[in-house]
Write a structure and sequence with these properties.
By secondary structure, this protein is an all-alpha fold. It has helices spanning about 5-15, 20-25, 40-45, 55-65.
Amino acid sequence: MDSDQFRKAAHSAIDESKYLIDYYDTIEKRRVVSNVEPGYLKKLLPDGPPETGEKWEDIQKDIESKIMPGLTHWYASPSSVV
């Protein structure tokens, strides 16, 4: 990824994606505590890295569908605010 591609990906992560801004807009709909089993992610990942680079949009989709289910979303619960 050259600097121009990185710049576009970084702007997309903030401005256009459902990754950061929409995450905070939808956090109340997410589970506070993950319900996945330990090791769940390994089953979802390929055995090795891709032969060629992937589009940032595809990486963002993987983050949402594969990584987010394993995270704890503290701000999803009003009782988690201290």
